[in-house]
């Protein structure tokens, strides 16, 4: 029998998963695996964990859900822990697999791991086949090559909307034939070097990982409440579950696909009508695409102090006192402090909050923006490498912002978006 390994990464779903569907079409049986890469749980050069407790908990829930959904189709998920370039070849040898199917990476570190895995598989005469499954628009369908993608979002968006189309989604498989997969063996948070932190009950949402929960959230936000029709008006909110879609956490781990969201949104428009709000959700998915393609284009530049600019000034120094005060909501700027406490105790913060605290960090405190980005990397449930580092570079003035010195007047922002101080009272108690 022709056996293939399907290596799940940040595509933890059965619906619209080209990697999985191609593996099923080309094989007699598949072995679905997930590898807990030790690299993802290390402490970075900035002193923060690459994965903090909130996101790790969400990840464990997502993997558990994927295993449950696979078992319902006659398969299951094999979990391994260690370096993928060591663990995946072991699984290939164990099951005599001839191919490994996986999601294609764009970010520098992930790309290096992919190259190492490919080299080890080559020694076993096993092919690694990768598929692009993370974006709304497929890279091959863009009206420009990756190296010629405009560095300004508006130019990218207008031409893409005009000249490219969104591909159809892949259906969820009806059955998955696999050799016997042992019961799920998940590491604990302690095994990953972390301790459990409950999400504070003031959180906008008690996020729970997994495809099942992601699809449920879409159903709620679109069809049950029709909140989508007011998205553009409410998206700058700060309190409550429904001021925005909150899809970001499920998108980040691939528990839901952007093309599936697009497909359901088009159904919604047919049922309830299209308006600026329904378009605006697609607009936000395009931003997500843009940053992913920027990482593909600029690679490691996005992690340098000067970003994609040519002004190669040395990194700014970091005052650990100022950094700690910012993290712990002790800057004495109430709007910044409220947002930072929400992030600390829930692993989430609104888009409006993120822009304000990042602007304050870069332009008021004048600290090295990469420390802020690294803290977000540790803390956010919905951390997405390209969106996080791309947005931080943007606000720091070393990314894709066509305007120089983008500065947020925090007092003015607070007066507009929290005029009755309800948000600040919620988090600061005053």
From TrEMBL:
Report if keyword Flavoprotein is assigned.
yes
**Residue ranges that the Swiss-Prot or TrEMBL entry lists as coiled coil:** none
Q: Which domain of life is it from?
A: Bacteria
Which PROSITE patterns does this UniProt record tie to the protein? Answer: PHR_CRY_ALPHA_BETA (PS51645)
Instruction: List the InterPro entries.
Output: Cry_DASH (IPR014133), Crypto/Photolyase_FAD-like_sf (IPR036134), Crypto/Photolyase_N_sf (IPR036155), Cryptochr/Photolyase_FAD-bd (IPR005101), Cryptochrome/DNA_photolyase_1 (IPR002081), DNA_photolyase_N (IPR006050), Rossmann-like_a/b/a_fold (IPR014729)
Matching entries from Pfam families are given as:
DNA_photolyase (PF00875), FAD_binding_7 (PF03441)
Which family does this protein fall into? Answer: Belongs to the DNA photolyase class-1 family.
- Role description: May have a photoreceptor function.
Question: What is this protein called in UniProt?
Answer: Cryptochrome DASH
Origin species, per record, is Flavobacterium silvisoli
């Amino acid at each position: 029998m022709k056996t293939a390994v399907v290596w799940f990464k940040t595509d933890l779903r059965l619906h619209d998963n080209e990697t999985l569907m191609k593996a099923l079409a080309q094989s007699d049986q598949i072995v679905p695996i997930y590898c807990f890469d030790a690299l993802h749980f290390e402490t970075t050069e900035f002193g923060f964990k690459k994965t903090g407790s909130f996101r790790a908990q969400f990840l464990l829930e997502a993997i558990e859900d994927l295993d449950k959904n696979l078992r319902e189709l006659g398969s299951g998920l094999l979990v391994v822990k260690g370096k993928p370039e060591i663990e995946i070849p072991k699984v290939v040898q164990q099951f005599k697999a001839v191919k490994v199917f996986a999601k294609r990476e764009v970010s520098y570190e992930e790309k290096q791991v992919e190259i190492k895995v490919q080299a080890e598989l080559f020694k076993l005469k096993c092919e690694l086949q990768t598929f692009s499954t993370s974006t709304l628009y497929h890279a091959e369908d863009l009206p420009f090559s990756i190296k010629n993608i405009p560095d300004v979002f508006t130019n990218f968006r207008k031409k893409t909307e005009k000249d490219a189309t969104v591909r159809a989604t892949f259906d969820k498989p009806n059955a998955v034939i696999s050799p016997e997969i042992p019961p799920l063996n998940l590491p604990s948070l302690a095994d990953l070097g972390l301790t459990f932190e409950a999400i504070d009950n003031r959180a906008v949402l008690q996020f729970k990982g997994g495809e099942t929960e992601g699809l449920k959230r879409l159903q709620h936000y679109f069809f049950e409440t029709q909140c989508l029709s007011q998205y553009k008006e409410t998206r700058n909110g700060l309190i409550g579950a429904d001021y925005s879609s909150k899809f970001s956490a499920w998108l980040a781990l691939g528990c839901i696909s952007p093309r599936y969201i697009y497909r359901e949104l088009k159904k919604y428009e047919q049922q309830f009508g299209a308006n600026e709000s329904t378009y605006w959700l697609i607009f936000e998915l395009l931003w997500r695409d843009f940053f992913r393609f920027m990482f593909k284009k600029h690679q490691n530049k996005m992690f340098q102090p000067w970003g994609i600019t040519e002004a190669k000034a040395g990194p700014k120094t970091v005052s650990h006192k100022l950094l700690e005060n910012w993290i712990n909501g002790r800057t004495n700027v109430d709007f910044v402090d409220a947002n930072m406490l929400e992030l600390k105790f829930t692993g989430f913060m609104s888009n409006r909050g993120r822009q304000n605290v990042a602007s304050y960090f870069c332009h008021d405190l004048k600290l090295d923006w990469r420390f802020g980005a690294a803290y977000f990397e540790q803390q956010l449930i919905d951390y997405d490498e390209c969106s996080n580092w791309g947005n931080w570079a943007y606000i720091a003035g070393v990314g894709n912002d066509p305007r120089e010195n983008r500065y947020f007047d925090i007092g003015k922002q607070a007066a507009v978006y929290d005029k009755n101080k309800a948000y600040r009272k919620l988090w600061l108690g005053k």
